[in-house]
Write a structure and sequence with these properties.
heterodimer; A: alpha/beta; TIM Barrel; Rossmann fold; Immunoglobulin-like; 9-stranded mixed beta sheet; 8-stranded parallel beta sheet; 26 strands; about 25% strand; globular; disordered N terminus; B: mainly alpha; Serine Threonine Protein Phosphatase 5, Tetratricopeptide repeat; about 0% strand
């Protein structure tokens, strides 16, 4: 009786064993290594190390003398498990030099032990010398008699001696990646740029006498520091080999106060990163939420946005705020010191939070993007931060400008144009388009440079910021300035020349603008007007370039209004104008994307490209991507079966605050 | 105390006209002459607050308080700066407590105190503060909205929704919307005396709307009656009659009259509004209200109010996703719309998005306090008291 269809199973044919007498030819060792590498995908991206800060105390009940009292091996294991390649540790001056000139050798050995333990787990260490974490009193030497370690000559001398002692002990440790002079909480105590520069020079000299090669960083973000104490750290940072960028609580409250997982908040870290990028590598620092009242999901979403935002905006690496939550004593739930670091990737008991999984996932994904073979498309558009930003009060430009620049940066990102952020004194040569948002005043010399820039083929996009127009603007923009029309509660747009600056649409929107430049015709083409026929958008051909003028401080109005509820026609207008200007200058979006809130970055390679998508919205998005070339297939960079496309358009679904990295091959 | 210097008066004048930058410059000039004048510091704090520069506002207001601990406008600026900046609830609570003592009849201080308590998770204290605000002024809409939000957190939407609607009724913007549909705006001219109104339909109707706008309902009713005596099928007059019934809580009559008006002419937006508002007042008729307000939102898509009315009906139907879209549209049309902000906060709360909800409540407070212009009232009192 047949039991199966087809009858009884046929006996399986035996496979002959290979003849051991004639072994297969051995492959060349390099080939074998390559095969192994292929079999075992990279777990870390050497060119984008990520990690976390390892704070010396876990609970508020511990005393400053408990500095790294607990074996940090467990924490380092967790970091290694997440494939982290970087950790920051903090030197305690108080513990290491308990008496003047008498060093606690066991404390220095403890520090060396941590670095060695990290190295054994393939984690490099950034050693931070003078930090204030609000709990460990790291710089509070009992013999210091409350003198200020930033400007007291004796204490500065002792600091240099401490640095030499520590660097002298650790310089041979292969695990030390870089030296960091301080953190922002400490550096915020400086009262003048000169004081800071002198201190940095002294400390650098002390390190360089002992260790001439390792990179040195200051540990402060020039923009956030200036906001917090008015000290311009740019010169001090020039002398360092790497910079850091981070969002502080005060800066967030100033620039993008609102929900963390949508709108301007999600761009703030990238903006500061770009701002800090002055030809040096920038470490995206202190990533993570500040407040205790965020849910675990919000913490993870925010971390994802910032990490991916950093990766696609040329960060040199990323350090998460802290690994383990600080176990705080019972306190009022609302109280938080702005410089306190309480929120980590794991809770106080060491249980991983969703943010930990997010970091792990990010590191593993990024590891599969070969940054030697794939390079981010160069930015040919720049947002210019005017020098008036550094003017003290009563000049309000210093308060308005960073916000305007942030919103210009966001608009450029919404148009999917690769963008950099530069200062007024920086060179314009690398760029094809310069965006000068809602500026009050530029230096005479800058106007000359802008004229030359446009004459030689560049495009200038400037929005009126209020007050009188500079005489140079008349020739440059080809319009006659008649005065400031003052504030308006509604903004109207009537398109006069369709398709000159993108697909503009006429509208009337309830949108307060603080100024409106009244212009009369000149050589410029009037692209759009307000409801009364006063020019709103003009384009002027100058030499080989173009000068585009927006008659209202659009970016400032967005920033000063409600950036989370900007009317759709205004968002459309600014996005279209920015996108069209860049497109006409030959540096438009490399990948067209239907979703404005999805940031797109293209890493170009020889055989394939990698496109990274980051959803800045807290809602799901369906992004329709259009490339110039026909895409043969797409696949997740982490592997998986490639999906055939056969077109230059395809759709990618993104979760709220989701990110996706896809490998593209072309037909 | 010395009278205000010319420089202070100049700064004050510029600030009152909204010329922020020149006013700040004038303040700094005044400080160069006398840096111990709390008036200048308090002016500066308000100017910084107007530009949303909270840290600067906090510094200036704190200096003013140090110079004169009885400076009520400085407490107001300081409290608002703490609240708008966020993350400083402990300081905020102290300041509003202080202001409530310095100016005990200041309703906003109690409302803000409640919001600071709520942000710090002291719900019971918050409710107490809002009740105190309503005790001082029973028409304080924001206190009522906050109580509705508190009810939502504790007991759910079914309990909270009447609170939202009641708060909405305290908010005069809903009546303004009805009159905007009728083309009646506040032009500064007083409504005519009914005796002087010409005996024709248009004059009577115009006067009736003007009288209703001024809340002289009985005179308005008399004129409407005259119109309807001559033509019982006047849809616009019927719609106004329906509105007047609504104002007297005669919901069934309002519904009947509005239906009659719409049977005569479907293109009477005021009647559509009255019908929707009457449905919304009756429990269990949210579905009908949603349909009516949906039609109204389509008819006047650029007005924020019908989107809010639609959203509130959708909340009653537990259709939170659709309600959210309607609220978002309203906020986009008018970011200063407090009612829409609170409604949106309620939707976010039901979706578990507490941070977003909290943000919306703070934005509502932001716009509400900007609209009130309390600063100048306190400033003038303080300045006169000094002199």
């Amino acid at each position: 009786m047949p039991t199966r269809k087809g009858g009884p199973r046929q006996p399986r044919e035996r496979v002959a064993r290979p003849d051991t007498a004639t072994p297969p030819p051995r492959r060349a060792s390099t080939q074998a290594a390559a095969d192994v590498a292929q079999a075992k995908p990279a777990q870390r991206n050497q060119l984008f190390p990520a990690g976390a800060s390892l704070y010396p105390l876990d609970t508020e009940t511990q005393s400053p003398e408990d500095w790294y009292g607990r074996d940090p091996g467990e924490d380092l294991d967790e970091l290694a498990k997440a494939r982290c390649a970087l950790v920051r540790v903090f030197v305690s001056w108080r513990v290491i030099e308990p008496q003047v000139g008498q060093y606690a050798e066991e404390a220095i050995e403890r520090l060396a032990g941590i670095i060695e333990a990290a190295r054994s787990r393939k984690i490099q260490t950034v050693v931070c010398f003078f930090a204030d974490d609000r709990h460990s009193e790291l710089t509070d030497v009992t013999w210091g008699k409350r003198r200020d370690p930033r400007n007291d000559s004796y204490l500065v001398q002792r600091e240099a001696a401490l640095i030499q002692k520590v660097v002298g002990r650790l310089r041979k440790e292969a695990g030390v990646f870089a030296w960091q002079l301080g953190n922002e909480a400490f550096i915020a105590g400086f009262t003048s740029s000169d004081e800071l520069e002198t201190w940095v020079a002294t400390m650098r000299e002390a390190i360089r006498e002992v260790d001439p090669t390792r990179p040195i960083g200051l540990g402060a973000d020039a923009e956030t520091l200036f906001r917090s104490n008015g000290v311009d750290a740019r010169n001090a940072l020039e002398s360092c080999e790497f910079a850091v960028s981070h969002v502080t609580a005060a800066y967030r409250a100033y620039a993008a106060e609102g929900p963390l997982t949508s709108g301007p908040s999600t761009y703030l870290d990238s903006f500061l990163l770009r701002h800090a990028h002055r030809g040096r590598p920038v470490l995206l620092d202190d990533v993570g939420t500040l407040a205790l009242d965020m849910s675990a999901g919000e913490e993870a979403s925010y971390l994802r946005s910032v990490l991916w935002g950093g990766f696609i905006n040329r960060a040199g690496g990323a350090l998460v705020r802290r690994l383990r939550d600080m176990d705080t004593e019972r306190r009022e739930p609302y109280f938080i010191d702005p410089f306190e670091t309480l929120v980590g990737l794991m809770d106080a008991e060491g249980v991983a939070k969703p943010a930990y999984t997010e970091l792990n996932k990010f590191v593993r994904t990024v590891a599969r993007i070969d940054l030697k073979a794939h390079t981010l498309l160069a930015e040919r558009t720049a947002v210019l931060v005017p020098s008036e930003r550094y003017e003290p009060l009563p000049n309000l430009a210093g308060l308005y400008d960073p916000r305007s620049c942030l919103h210009a940066f966001i608009a450029t990102k919404n148009a999917h144009v690769p963008v950099a952020v530069i200062g007024e004194d920086d060179g314009f040569e690398e760029f094809q388009v310069l965006v000068v948002p809602s500026v009050f005043a530029l230096a005479d010399k800058t106007w000359e440079r802008l004229g030359t820039f446009v004459q030689s083929g560049g495009t200038l996009l400037l929005s009126y910021g209020g007050g009188d127009a500079h005489p140079a603007s008349r020739d440059l923009f080809g319009v006659e300035f008649l005065g400031d029309g003052g504030p308006r509660e509604e903004l109207s747009c009537r398109v006069a020349q369709p398709d000159v600056l993108g697909a503009l649409e006429s509208f009337d929107a309830r949108f307060e603008v603080p100024n409106f430049a009244l212009l009369s015709g000149g050589t410029a083409t009037i692209v759009a007007t307000d409801a009364q026929g006063s020019p709103l958008l003009t384009v002027n051909q100058v030499g080989q370039g173009r000068a585009v003028y927006i008659a209202v401080p659009l970016e400032r109005a967005i920033a000063q209004g409600d950036p989370w509820a900007t009317p759709a026609p205004i968002r459309h207008l600014i996005r279209e104008v920015y996108g069209a200007v860049a497109r006409a200058a030959g540096c438009g979006a490399p990948v067209e994307c239907s979703a404005a809130e999805v940031e797109v970055a293209l890493f170009q390679g020889e055989a394939d490209d990698v496109v990274v998508l980051l959803n800045h919205s807290d809602a799901k998005e369906e992004a329709v991507l259009t490339l110039e070339r026909r895409v043969a297939s797409i696949s997740d960079v982490r592997g998986g079966t490639p999906v055939a496309v056969g077109s230059n358009t395809f759709t990618v679904g993104l979760e709220p605050n989701g990110a996706s990295a896809l490998r593209l091959t072309y037909a | 105390m010395s009278p205000r210097s010319r420089q202070v008066l100049l700064a004050e004048g510029l600030a009152r006209q909204g010329h922020v930058a020149p006013a700040v410059e004038a303040c700094y000039e005044a400080l160069r002459l006398d840096e111990s004048d709390p008036l200048v510091h308090v002016l500066l704090s308000d100017l910084f607050l107007a530009g949303d520069f909270y840290d600067e506002a906090i510094e200036a207001a704190s200096t003013a308080i140090e110079l004169d601990p009885d400076c009520a406008p400085a407490f107001l600026s300081l409290g608002l700066a703490y609240d708008r900046r966020g993350g400083m609830w402990d300081q905020s609570i102290l300041v509003w407590h202080e202001l409530a003592e310095v100016a005990p009849d200041l309703v906003t201080a109690h409302v803000q105190l409640g919001e600071a308590f709520a942000a710090a998770a002291f719900e019971e204290e918050a409710i107490e503060a809002w009740r105190a605000a309503l005790g001082l002024n029973a028409h304080e809409a924001r206190a009522m909205y906050n109580l509705a939000v508190a009810a939502l957190k504790k007991e759910g939407m079914a309990t909270a929704l009447p609170g939202f609607r009641r708060a909405g009724e305290l908010d005069p913007s809903q009546d303004d919307f009805f009159f905007a549909l009728a083309g009646v705006y506040d032009d500064g001219a007083a409504a005519p005396d009914p005796i002087d109104v010409a005996p024709d339909r248009d004059s009577r109707l115009g006067a009736a709307f003007a009288l209703a706008f001024e809340e002289d309902y009985f005179s308005a009713v008399d004129l409407i009656r005259l119109i309807l005596d001559e033509n019982a099928s006047d849809a616009e007059a019927l719609a106004l009659a329906g509105y007047l019934y609504l104002k007297q809580d005669s919901v069934n009559e309002a519904m009947a009259v509005a239906l009659r008006a719409l049977a005569i002419s479907t293109k009477t937006p005021t009647a559509v509004y009255v019908l929707g508002a009457a449905f919304a007042k009756r429990p269990g008729l949210n579905r009908n209200a949603a349909r009516v307000f949906g039609a109204l939102a389509k008819a006047v898509p650029n007005q924020a109010m019908p989107h809010v009315l639609l959203a509130e009906s959708l909340l009653g139907l537990q259709r939170f996703g659709q309600a959210k879209q309607a609220y978002l549209r309203a906020v986009e049309l008018d970011p200063t719309f407090v009612r829409a902000r609170f409604g949106l906060a309620a939707v976010f709360l039901t979706e578990g998005e507490y941070a977003r909800a909290h943000h919306e409540i703070r934005r509502a407070a932001y716009h509400d306090t900007r609209r009130q212009g309390l600063f100048w009232r306190l400033y003038d009192d303080y300045a006169q008291g000094r002199e």
